[in-house]
């Protein structure tokens, strides 16, 4: 699979094609073959070969490739010259540190305030870092809506303050953090201002 498909300097007259191809690369990153196909329609002939390769990769991602093969696709896109290789979102670890950094990345896209330290401090108090934590003993639990996840969010709050681009699973660490921080931003100004049960 080719790793470099353009020269570093693309002629100005090809700018429209580059923009269209950038949309196709974005579709690959998002794992949407249909979106890639739509984007390719606007790619000029001189870029069609590359666009078709991108479309094929997107379709494969949609088909549910194993993680190692998805990593190969990511490496292929990273091998493209700027600006394509800059369209990839950062990768985060599947641990507490990675969940917080991923949530902060999503929050930043939506203008939701909060710091790593503020989130970490509240997670330690609320769940001790256990994304499957559930409180079956407080007043919320008695009312049939127990607090769940890293930041101990109840279902109605999670649904009301869910952040687009995250899972609808309340136990998903990133979704739980983002929703809790969105709620805290509306009620307290920021999760950083929360120092007790909220």
Automatic annotation (TrEMBL):
Keywords: Signal. The keyword GTP-binding does not apply. InterPro entries: Lysozyme-like_dom_sf, Transglycosylase_SLT_dom_1. Residues 1-30 form the signal peptide. Coiled coil: none annotated. Residues 123-195 form the Transglycosylase SLT domain. This is Transglycosylase SLT domain-containing protein.
